[in-house]
């Protein structure tokens, strides 16, 4: 039986590059976001996770769903799948790594091998729509 990890992610693009994060001790980059706490909506999870990881406030009124993606979970057993519900949205504040985040980076499509399998699907879609540059 496949195990499912349900996550929410923030897709933030600037000048054809996507904001990504790498956690302490991890070898891959991931989109900012994470797992919901009991009773949280997608938006509540998104706002909390981005604030915790990047010390900025996503503006709830600007949030829009980008899509839902599923792939094998990076660094987990083959029977573990991650489902990532992705949102865009504006923010206030200054981006800075916090808590488990070791670094933030602005990646292009050329960085696709450096991200998790589910993020690779998102990179593919964004590149196909000319939103993520090579």
Architecture overview:
Helix content is 19%, strand content 37%. The relative contact order is 0.28. The protein is globular. It contains two helices and nine strands. It has a single domain (3-128), classed as Alpha-Beta Complex (Nucleoside Triphosphate Pyrophosphohydrolase). The strands form three sheets. It has a four-stranded mixed sheet with strand order 4-1-7-6. With 134 residues, the chain is an alpha+beta fold.
Sum up the structure in keywords.
19% helix, single chain, Nucleoside Triphosphate Pyrophosphohydrolase, 134 residues, four-stranded mixed β-sheet, alpha+beta
Topology summary:
Blueprint: E1 3-10, E2 13-14, E3 17-23, E4 33-35, H1 42-54, E5 57-58, E6 64-72, E7 80-88, E8 91-92, E9 101-107, H2 117-128
Parallel strand pairs: 1-7
Antiparallel strand pairs: 1-4, 2-3, 3-9, 5-8, 6-7
Write a brief caption for the model.
This protein has 134 residues and is α+β, with helices and mostly antiparallel strands. The chain is built from 2 helices and 9 strands, in the order ββββαβββββα.
Largest sheet at a glance?
4 strands, mixed
Q: How helix-rich are the residues, as a percent range?
A: 10-25%
**What pattern of helices and strands is seen along the backbone?**
EEEEHEEEEEH
Number of domains: 1
Architecture per CATH nomenclature, i.e. the level-2 architecture = Alpha-Beta Complex
What is the general shape? globular
Task: Please state roughly what percent of the residues sit in beta strands, choosing from under 5%, 5-15%, 15-25%, 25-35%, 35-45% or over 45%.
Answer: 35-45%
Specify the structural class: alpha+beta
CATH homologous superfamily heading: Nucleoside Triphosphate Pyrophosphohydrolase
Instruction: Give unreliable regions as ranges.
Output: none
């Amino acid at each position: 039986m496949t195990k499912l990890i349900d996550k929410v992610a923030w897709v933030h693009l600037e000048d054809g590059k996507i904001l990504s994060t790498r956690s302490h001790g991890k070898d891959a980059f991931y989109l900012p976001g994470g797992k919901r706490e009991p009773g949280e909506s997608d938006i509540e999870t998104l706002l909390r996770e981005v604030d915790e990881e990047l010390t900025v406030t996503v503006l709830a009124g600007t949030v829009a769903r980008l899509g839902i993606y599923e792939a094998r979970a990076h660094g987990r057993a083959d029977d573990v799948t991650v489902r990532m519900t992705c949102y865009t949205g504006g923010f206030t504040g200054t981006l800075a790594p916090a808590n488990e985040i070791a670094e933030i980076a602005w990646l292009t499509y050329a960085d696709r091998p450096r991200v998790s399998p589910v993020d690779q699907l998102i990179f593919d879609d964004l590149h196909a729509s000319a939103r993520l540059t090579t």
